[in-house]
Design brief:
Strand content: 15-25%
CATH superfamily of the largest domain: Alanine racemase
Radius of gyration: 23 Å
Low-confidence stretches: none
Helix content: 25-40%
Bound molecules: ligand LLP
CATH class of the largest domain: Alpha Beta
Amino acid sequence: MILSYQDNQLHMEEVALATIAEALGTPSYVYSKRYLDEAVEQLKSAFAGTPTKIHYSVKANSNLSILRVMAAHGCGFDIVSGGELSRVVAAGCEPGEVIFSGVGKTVEEIDYALKLGIHCFNVESEQELNRISERARNLQKVAAVSMRVNPNVDAQTHPYISTGLRENKFGVSAAVAMQLYQRANEDPHLNPTGIDCHIGSQISQTEPLLEALTGLLTLVDDLERQSIKLEHIDLGGGMGIQYKDEDPLDIESYGGGVAQILGGREQTIFLEPGRSLTANGGVLLTRAEYIKPGAEDAPNFAVVDAAMNDLIRPALYQAWHDVLPLKSAESACAKTWQIVGPVCESGDFLAKDRELPIAQGDLLAVTSAGAYGMVQASNYNSRGRPCEVLVDGDTFSVIRRRETISDQLRLEREQL
Ligand code: LLP
């Protein structure tokens, strides 16, 4: 268990979270190294029947220390910007283990990736393929490319994070992909090495993922008949986790299904998981600043020191995150709370209608915050972003310090 109450105190691994909150203040993101280690190893064993390479999706949590943990398990990286590539390099990880996704790669980003010698570009349009070819010619390189196919499969997830339908901006149709492979095959500066898709995030059923793979295999076989032999098939990320009562994706049956559908084909399977490796390994610690009991049947508000700028998922996707008191036997009796931040808009909430005891000054942990938490934090209301902490057994270390107001002001100049 990553989170457990020991002597009424919520612990992550063997560290009382209140100790971290007292030492470093709140709001703070705290991650469990043990969770990361176990999540990667479980995924590897679910795919043990197939040659598989995990490329951790940096966007989920891009802290350098997290990247180093992933690299230690042999993961490569899925990136979507030059900034993420710089992070991989800064973490001391291998650029040759990087695949570059995203619909809008700039000339500068492509050049940077070519010079570093990344493993492969996941290409999302004809114009992008042309640009990569031109830049590779310019730099006298050969770019390995994989076409991102939009398989028109419904991932049955939140519309903002569904990416595999024709109406989404991602990838190209199977027919266009075939043309792009022919084009790439004839170009001395392009080497078509793979094929990929990513149909969405927080997917709980294996069927859409396996349906997408089946679609890719039709193309893989067609290409092979035209003597274009691919080395890898990239299924993207998207493996769903449990936030509340939803079923997490059954990775064992996903891995088993992939092995079965793949048959005897020799391509390596690439995976690009983000959320499933990090989300449930992280919490956001926050303190109740004020309690505003509602008169009659008006709601009770607990105003905490974390806000939508720190964790935007509830405001943006109506996402549900559990909220746990750091002390299990608080003095105040349980009431139903709207847990809100100090930001000046009504969309600023972390949790609604939660029954738990909260008194002024109490510490709380917002759970499942290890993915798409800190990476989506902003300075809205000129709030400094939280610090990040990594717990390992009975120790913890700061892996990013709290942002100060000088950090924010440093980039600005007074203009008269
Ligand atoms: N590969 C590609 C090409 C992606 O676009 C994504 C996520 C992933 C991999 C990783 O997906 P995951 O395994 O984490 O589901 N901000 C949203 C999630 C956006 C996901 C975007 N793409 C959230 O907070 O739920």
